[in-house]
Amino acid sequence: MFRVEINWDNLRYNYRLLKSEVGDYEIIPVVKANAYGHGTREATLVLKEEGARLFVISTVDDFQRVKDVRDVDFLMLYPDYTDSAQISYLASFPNLIFSLYDPYAVDVLPEGARVHINVDTGMNRAGVKPWDFPEVYERARRKLKVEGAFSHFPIARDPEFSRRQIETFDELTRDKGLFRHINNSEGLMMYGTVFDGARIGILLYGYGREDVKPVKSVFSKIVQVKRIRKGESVSYDRYFIAPEDGFLAVVPVGYAHGVRRVEGYRVFSEGRWYPVAGRITMDAIMLYSREDTFRVGQEVELLGENNRADDIAKVWGTLTYEVLVSIGTHPAW
């Protein structure tokens, strides 16, 4: 049992805040991976209303959710160039822009397909190496509609490394009439309005700066309350031993629902914090309280404005991004 709440007003607020700072500089919302767990289609429609005109998706699965949205374009990061039928299908949509990330893609793409060339300036993920770019660009522009070029920061907070990337990218792509973008959320904060636009994800969804507002909350509820005596153990491996007589609450969520099986996770409910008692199980967590504060049906916040994704990420030893795409988006939900 759960409830996912998306505050679209907060998404609008975050977009407007960024636009007020960058003016005509293009904010390119990243709505891949189900918009970081917020809903690709829903986020796209909201941000379209706010004026966004270019969106980043990852795969054909993302595109299927938004292919009928008009008057905006979608840059697909990972089209499958080994599947010629899929490429032909995607090319039939005038609002789809391909990431040209490998030289062989020039041969696979149909004539006239729209592309942004992905230049690998240091991420070493998908992308054309700088020394291959001149030849790929010349081949591509004879066959395709080369409308843009982009790269990506692996560590925007490293100014020396990032500046080298910016310089390399600029040298390769300047004076070609291309729409150019290298910035992500961290890059925008570090370097401002570099090139023509920034691909923004985490800032839009409410993390990375103190003045943006979290968009997603996930709740469950207590389904059982029982007394527990001092010295009784809870969950697998008898990891938790009740320090004194108290109360135990059962919440029907677990690692099958994206809640990591790690020590230190807690939930927020009715003004109180409750640590998970013992091991998180596949489909249940248990909460302990010395006081009689639990009741059946009581709602608990698994993720949200109180139980923030960036705080959970510290407990999990991971990134805010992973928390957002895990809790409330796992297939078991």
What does this structure look like?
The protein has 333 residues and is α/β, with parallel strands linked by helices. It folds into two domains: 7-200, Alanine racemase (TIM Barrel, Alpha-Beta Barrel); 216-326, Lyase, Ornithine Decarboxylase, Chain A, domain 1. The protein has eleven helices and 18 strands. The protein has helices spanning 8-22, 32-37, 40-50, 60-66, 84-91, 105-108, 133-143, 159-173, 185-191, 309-316, 320-326; strands at 3-6, 26-29, 54-57, 73-76, 96-100, 114-118, 145-150, 179-183, 197-200, 216-221, 224-228, 233-234, 240-241, 246-251, 266-269, 272-275, 285-289, 299-303. Helix 1 (8-22) crosses helix 3 (40-50) and helix 10 packs across helix 11. The longest helix is centred in the first third of the chain and has 15 residues, at 8-22. The relative contact order is 0.13. The mean pLDDT is 96.
